[in-house]
Amino acid sequence: MEAAWSVPVPLTPREPGRNDSANRPREREIGWDLPDAEQKRWLWSTITSQWKQYLAYAVVGFVLTDVGAILVGIVIVILAVILLVPFGIFAAVGVGTLFVFEPLGIGLLAVIGILYGLSVVAVAAVVQVSVQTYLRYYALLILRSMIINARGLSWAMDPTFFESRNEFRT
To answer: What residue spans carry the Basic and acidic residues bias annotation (predicted)?
Structure first.
């Protein structure tokens, strides 16, 4: 079984005759071509040499996660109240129907309540996914820069190095 930080599998096959040997030493410097046990030692040596940066990252990550959760909760409550307006109008119609024909009113109120609940869940999912995606992307960027700085690999900060590699594209 491979570890989470093992060498990524190319998503597209290499083109025949393409020479990627120019990037191989760089991959070796980053540690992508190492076996799993060596990658763990390599990562641990980076963590122990830059422990203050990792500790700061953990604290900031924890704070950002908590702040993100609070903001997501606030936004979801605001959007739930906004969604309550149109569903409240339909619920008023359901209450009116309840006085005229009780079984139909109960059914209408049940359907309106279920649709409102599903709408709030859908809105909450969109908001939550957006915040989680940002936080994970932030974490990857910070960890990448810490590893690169710990190894003195200033060339790896060039964003075109990773973008130009066809094997990581979908």
So the answer is: 15-26
